[in-house]
Amino acid sequence: MRNFSKSKRVVIKLGTNILSATRTADKAATLTTNGGIDSEYVVKMAGQVNSLLKMGKQVVIVTSGAIGMGAGQLKLSNKPGDVRMRQACAAIGQPMLMAEYRKAFEQFGVTVAQVLLTAEVLNNRKTYLNLQNSIETLLKLGVVPVLNENDSISTAEIGTAFGDNDRLSALVASKIDADLLIILTDIDALYDKDPKKHADAKPIDTVFEITEEILKSAGSKGSKFSTGGMKTKIEAAKVASNAGCKIVLANGKAENVIERIIAGETIGTLFLPKRKLSNRERWILNSTPAGVINIDDGAIRAVKNKKSLLPSGIKSIEGTFEAGEVIWLNNKAKAVTNFSSAELETLAGKHSTEIRKLLGPKRRDVVAIPEDIVFVDY
Question: Which fold has domain 289-375?
Answer without folding.
Answer: 2.30.130
